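Archive maintenance. Older records in this collection stored only the sequence; we are now back-filling the structure field for every entry so that each record is complete. The fields below show one back-filled record exactly as it appears after the update. Entries are processed alphabetically, and D-alanine--D-alanine ligase is next in the queue.

ARCHIVE ENTRY
Title: D-alanine--D-alanine ligase
Organism field: Micromonospora nigra
Length field: 328
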Amino acid sequence: MGATSAENSVVTATTSDLHVLVLAGGLSYERDVSLRSGRRVLDALRAVGVEAELRDADVALLPALTADPPDAVVIALHGATGEDGSLRGVLDLCGVPYVGCDARASRLAWDKPSAKAVLREAGIPTPDWVALPHDRFSELGAVAVLDRIADRLGLPLMVKPAQGGSGLGAAVVRDAASLPAAMVGCFAYDPTALVERYVPGMDVAVSVIDLGDGPQALPPVEIVPRNGVYDYAARYTAGRTTWHTPARLDARATESVAEVALAAHNALGLRDLSRVDLIVDAAGQPHVLEVNVSPGMTETSLLPLAVQAAGLDFGEVLGTLVARAATR
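Back-filled structure field:
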């Protein structure tokens, strides 16, 4: 099978007897997106004959898991609840299998500075960065710290929360005068800001799935936001972004982004599925920005677009993943 195609790889799985719980909602800033993801996953599973129900991750969850344990769980929660590893650890304690990576790998991928350090150690390209907690920012003097960051990394810069997703709190800083406001906006979502060198180029997302034959990269999705920044509004508002699937890359660059995405997925110890966000620079070199262990599943989300581009059925892919999880 080619590195960028998963055609004909969906294994035949008996799912009609499975009872699957789709977890969505939560209390993060991404609750609305999570609910949209959960409903789409629910509909896709039911369309292929899987008995599935949707439930929030609230005080009623643990009693429900005890009274009627599902055969598998699909985590459609975004933000900390679904991605920092804590919920996965609770599911492990309950002996309930789930689609996706384990708690340890989830914690690692969720913390962007830690994940970038692992990627860098593995030789996977990722933009230079500095992680700055709000307390240090205040104690050391904001002006002095920001001047040093700009001198060290250069301009423009990307500022985003060290933990978080959906583009919330993220901003491109093109001049030094805009950096303080970007930091304040970032700190509204997380006590630590990740400031990294901005790499101009093509925004690309590569989804990775494992349907039984090992991780495979799906066709890359090119992201073209109307205002030039792939922020929350651009991700989830119709008409704000154009997607090209597959991305408008030559054969060499297409192969390169697939190889780098697979390397990132494996370096972080991920399982079943992930989405790797990259920038491809003018020379065709991919740079990993972050890796998502609970990618969006909405009508404008990138993993479902990639599944469709690969000629696969979204419901069948999910059915295979839950069937494999149920055997763990």
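Update note: The longest strand covers residues 202-209. Residues 31-47 form the longest helix (17 residues).
Entry marked complete.
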